[in-house]
Amino acid sequence: MKLSSNGIELLKRFEGLALEAYQDIAGVWTIGYGHTGPDVKPGMRITESEAEELLRRDISPRENAVARLASVSLNRNEFDALVSFVYNIGVDAFRRSTPLRRLNRGDRLGAADALAWWNKATIGGRLREVIGLTRRRAAERALFLTPTTPLIFGEPDNVEEDTRATPVEAPPRRTGIAESRTVQGATVAGGAGVAASSMQGDSSGPARQAGGPAAGGASDGAPSSNSANGDQSVAVDSDGNVTLGEETGGEESGGEETGDTEEIILDTGDMPTREDVTAVEAQIQFALLILIVLSVLFVIYARFDDWRNYRR
């Protein structure tokens, strides 16, 4: 397949015609319709017919590169858009580009979108967006996505000279750090890790109480209760001292009245045992561990996806 007249007009529009050699904004000596190479010297001059001949000569290897590197069938507009694209960025850059990878995977819309990433050039040691390249990529994308009707281009007036700059691929970054899936996954993993570590250091109050008199054992030498319902009486004397009493029955074990002491009944029958609390904590920690593992896997996948689709 050869570049159509419509494709040639697109290419000429953005390359422009220069009959005298000049340096583009990236410092590359150029002449004719964007012709570069060791044969272009300062002060070199050519005619318009010579510029046409150079253009035809430069187009041929780009046509061959598109036909050779694209593993899917291309319609006329797709082929013309890609030849214009390769004419601007070079065959080697096209071979490594995201548009070609996506195209060969069958993702034509993704390939068209990735063309727009090639709108920056290194100028003065800095990577900068070039307005002319942005416009050129938009025109090539539109042509690529046009199934049958050819685009009609206007007169090539007022086309900026910086459309000839040699671009490099620069995928768009996410607008904010909160949109990064890597940051989101790391945040979830960190939160789960903090929750798990805090639970390990937490000793439950109810579990300690459950190990005391309510669990059937003695605490600090106090007599244990054998009450059927688990109730325990605590006597408070007039001085405010608390003493552990016997089963609730209204009298002391010696048959004497309690005097001016006051009984407080603690119902500990429904308090969880240490084993119950430990089992619940183990289940929660296991769930948090699963969450941490899933979050780490999500971070790894997000990094791989960013590298594959956004080269980040």
Task: Provide structural commentary.
There is one protein chain. This protein has three domains: 168 residues, Lysozyme (Orthogonal Bundle); 63 residues; 34 residues, no CATH class. Helix content is 46%, strand content 11%. Strand 4 and strand 5 form a beta hairpin. Helix 1 packs parallel to helix 3 and helix 6 packs antiparallel against helix 7. The two termini are 35 Å apart. About 13% of the residues have low confidence.
Per CATH, what is the topology of the largest domain?
Lysozyme
Global Rg: 40 Å
Number of extended strands: 8
Low-confidence stretches: 203-230, 246-258
Instruction: Provide the CATH architecture of the largest domain.
Output: Orthogonal Bundle
- Structural class of the helices, strands and pairings? mainly alpha
Counting structural domains, the number is 3
β-strand amount = 5-15%
Brief summary of the model shown:
With 312 residues, the protein is mostly helical. It has ten helices and eight strands. Strands 1-2-3 form a three-stranded antiparallel β-sheet.
Summary keywords:
312 residues; mainly alpha; 3-stranded antiparallel β-sheet; 8 strands; 46% helix
Describe the secondary-structure layout.
Blueprint: H1 5-15, E1 18-23, E2 29-32, E3 35-36, H2 48-69, H3 76-89, H4 91-95, H5 98-104, H6 108-115, E4 120-123, E5 126-129, H7 131-145, H8 181-200, H9 205-210, E6 231-236, E7 242-244, E8 262-267, H10 274-310
Antiparallel strand pairs: 1-2, 2-3, 4-5, 6-7, 6-8
